[in-house]
Design brief:
This protein is mainly β. The chain has three domains: 4-221, 6 Propeller (Neuraminidase); 235-319, no CATH class; 325-483, C8orf32 fold. Helix content is 11%, strand content 45%. The strands form nine sheets. Strands 21, 22, 24, 27, 33 and 36 form a six-stranded antiparallel β-sheet that branches. A four-stranded antiparallel β-sheet has the order 1-20-19-18, with no helix packed on it. Strand 19 (186-200) and strand 20 form a beta hairpin. Helix 2 (355-365) packs across helix 5 (408-422) and helix 4 (397-403) packs across helix 5. The protein is globular, with a radius of gyration of 26 Å.
């Protein structure tokens, strides 16, 4: 079975089902019920005479040979062969997702943030479950679990169908998941996105214009969850990252005994440095606070001399999502003194002694005492107060709070200050995001900006991730997509240390050189290789 499918004649896919040898998928925009061969992508329309009845259908389920569908406020049953729909249950709300077990029907409703459960025989409502996310959700039932994909949270949740308790959750490798189903042991997820592209128009004066088009595909979601670790890893990729400096952009000055340090990609629960080699000049490797750093040494750099040096690394990366709830924390556990001494202080112009930052800390946290609840409250407070804006330099948190706008680095600064004043150790992590390029293996990809986020320390669990600005849409409710989670494209280089520095005084790095960053996605890792 193919792991990535691009079905023909598709504009959007909401809902998937598995027949035993083909996928069924519904396109609510056209009303097509598509039959998709997972081996060769061949696509056929199953409901040709009845496509009008399938317009706006978003939920799909197949049980005991019967096809069921959900359209707005009606649960529908399809007649065999013709796929003519007849109403099985009328709802008093608009819904999106549908799943069936042998005895029950599950229906998701984004507006109410509930999943409603009905008796399959009588149609009577039996119970109500809390929806795990905030977006439009689609459902499937498999092996005694209710599986939910959330289009905003970019997450698949495995739920206890009786209580709605989240057994574990999985970060999907791409945004806007719209449907899911198990094909045997393989979990397939459909995605419906939009992308910008350059359109050639011979009738236009400049011939080219930027337009938007749909991008719909089906991809196998791979995941590893273990009972002894509090996280789930999802799809892995082998990527190549190249980072180098070019001294052509430096000030015209002669330098002697130059030592130039550039951190290397870290080994973490979701990331493994497979190999690294020097570019342009050799380096020696040192450890700084447990982080691997490449050190380049030059006896002299003459005025106007051009050097190119850096490293090329091959890295295995995965998505990761931690399963830690506030009740899981043992509040009697102590944070190690070495951690507190290093990560509860103002060591980076955090303005922690200013009135504005101290008042912001109280406004954010209030009377909360659980560190996980405090950190989430800090994140939401920062999102309330700031709008994302790219800036050329980083201001201190008091200035950023007054301005109300900031880049990812300034979001980080405010979060660090508020968390440390609360007593939660925090540190900066980054440094780049590999651009997503679905299927474009081996293509050089150059990120336009660097990127930073944070990790915070939980006693009993250690360091866990929190994205800085990526989940801030500008208004509530805020997704928790990258709270306790990171997508596969984030490359962790330097955790709590400077990514790059020199012993040259009086000049910034931008005075001395121009940096070059390039990624290549080499391949997607097979399921059996995901053994981190």
């Amino acid at each position: 079975m193919r792991e990535l499918l691009y079905p023909l004649i598709v504009s959007s896919l909401h809902g998937l089902a598995w027949t035993g040898d083909h996928l069924l998928a519904v396109d609510p925009r056209t009303g097509y019920l598509l039959k998709i061969d997972v081996n060769n992508e061949q696509t056929a329309i199953s409901n040709g005479p009845a496509v009008d009845q399938w317009l706006d259908v978003t939920g799909l389920s197949l049980q005991s040979g019967e096809v069921w569908a959900l359209r707005e406020d009606r649960i529908l049953r399809a007649a065999p062969q013709s796929y003519v729909l007849e109403t099985a249950i009328e709802l008093d709300y608009l819904a999106e997702g549908l799943a069936l077990s042998d005895t029950e029907i599950f229906v998701s409703c984004q507006r109410s943030q509930f999943i409603f459960v009905y008796d399959r025989t009588t149609g009577e409502r039996k119970r109500i479950l809390d929806a795990p996310g905030i977006g439009e959700e689609n459902l499937t039932f498999d092996s005694g679990s209710l599986w939910v994909c959330d289009s905003v949270e970019q997450t698949v949740y495995c739920l206890d169908p009786e209580t709605g308790r989240v057994r574990f959750n999985i970060l999907t490798p791409y945004a806007k998941p719209k449907g899911l189903v198990f094909a045997g042991t393989c979990l397939y997820v459909s995605y419906s996105q939009e992308e910008d592209f350059i359109e050639e128009d011979p009738n236009r004066y400049n011939r080219q214009s930027i337009e938007t088009r749909g991008k719909t595909f089906i991809h196998r979601l791979k995941f590893i969850t273990k009972p002894d670790v509090p996280y789930t890893l999802s799809n892995g990729y082998l990527i190549e990252m190249t980072y180098c400096e070019e001294t052509a952009g430096r000030e015209s000055v002669a330098l002697e005994n130059v030592e130039w340090r550039i951190a290397l990609p870290a080994d973490t629960p979701r990331q493994k440095l497979v190999e690294v080699e020097a570019i342009g000049a050799p380096f020696r490797e040192v450890l700084i606070e447990g982080q691997r750093v490449a050190v380049f040494s030059f006896d002299a750099l003459a005025e106007g001399e051009i050097q190119v040096f850096g490293w090329r690394a091959v890295i295995e990366v995965h998505g990761i999502k931690y399963q830690i709830a506030p009740d899981d924390l043992d509040l009697n556990l102590e944070i190690p003194e070495a951690i507190k001494a290093q990560y509860l202080i103002d060591d980076d112009d955090l303005a922690m002694d200013t009135r504005r930052v101290r008042e912001a800390t109280y406004d954010a946290v209030g009377d909360l005492t659980n560190p996980l609840e405090q950190m989430l409250a800090i994140r939401e407070f920062v999102y309330d107060k700031l709008d994302y804006q790219v800036v050329n330099s980083i201001s201190s948190p008091d200035t950023v709070l007054l301005r109300g706008k900031g880049s990812c680095g300034e979001y980080v600064g405010v979060m660090l200050a508020l968390a440390r004043l609360t007593g939660i150790p925090c540190r900066t992590v980054g440094r780049y995001k590999c651009p997503e390029h679905l299927g474009g293996f081996g293509t050089p990809l150059e990120p336009r900006y660097n990127h930073v986020w944070i990790e915070f320390y939980l006693a009993g669990y250690g360091w866990v991730p929190c994205e800085s600005s990526a989940d801030d849409p500008g208004q509530r409710p805020y997704s928790q997509r990258f709270f306790l989670g990171l997508p596969w494209g984030h490359v962790e280089v330097g955790k709590g240390i400077n990514f790059e520095e020199t012993n040259v005084r009086g000049y910034s790095l931008s005075d001395l050189s121009i940096n070059h960053v390039r990624f290549k996605i080499l391949k997607e890792l097979p399921a059996e290789a995901e053994t981190l």
